[in-house]
Design goal:
This protein is an all-alpha fold. It has one domain: Four Helix Bundle (Hemerythrin (Met), subunit A) (Up-down Bundle). Helix content is about 85%, strand content about 0%. The longest helix has about 35 residues. It is globular and about 55 Å long.
């Protein structure tokens, strides 16, 4: 697997983990339980910043840009995925507002908003993983992949914005640790 795809798919796994926790929290709420507001706030903070600042630029500025114009199918897919990135911004704002309302008064329609965002995120990631990446592997020659890999590596440089990236790593780990029961326990 190309190094750029390995990095992007790793980020997809992290985001799918967030979606899974969000669905679990929604289920607890739907069943009349209460959830840890701090986990919800952490989720809202993570999805508000990480995809827009670090993840989507890797996709749009490297893979989408390199794949653009190589086939009508690729172009249609890139337009759809770019539109979804814009839609995600709206859904994330809706989720953040629902979390604030839940924290303030225990309501805010959080169950439906959380489910809608989690479903959207899972479907979007599936579309990229199953369709876009497959198409890229078919259409891009090695030289184009080398350029994509290099560009993603520069964007994923641990020295660049290291503190910011470390913040998101810690935030993700805290969400996963707080929301998921320990193995064997």
């Amino acid at each position: 697997m190309r190094s750029s795809l390995r990095i992007i798919k790793g980020e997809h796994l992290a985001l799918k983990g967030i979606a899974r926790v969000l669905k679990m929290e929604a289920l607890v709420l739907e069943r009349g339980g209460r959830v840890d507001a701090e986990i919800l706030e952490d989720i809202a903070a993570y999805v508000t910043e990480f995809p827009m600042r670090f993840h989507h630029p890797k996709e749009e500025r490297t893979l989408f840009a390199t794949l653009s114009g190589r086939s009508p199918e690729a172009d249609r897919l890139i337009v759809a995925l770019t539109n979804q990135h814009e839609e995600e911004s709206r859904l994330v704002a809706e989720l953040a507002a629902a979390v604030r309302a839940y924290v303030a008064d225990g309501d805010g329609g959080l169950v439906e908003v959380a489910r809608r965002y989690a479903r959207f995120l899972e479907e979007h990631i599936h579309m990229e993983d199953a369709q876009l990446f497959r198409l890229a592997e078919q259409l891009l020659p090695d030289a184009a992949w080398d350029a994509v890999d290099a560009a993603v590596a520069r964007m994923d440089d641990p020295a660049a914005e290291a503190a910011e990236k470390a913040k998101f790593t810690r935030l993700h780990l805290r969400i996963m640790d707080a929301a998921l029961p320990p193995l064997g326990g």
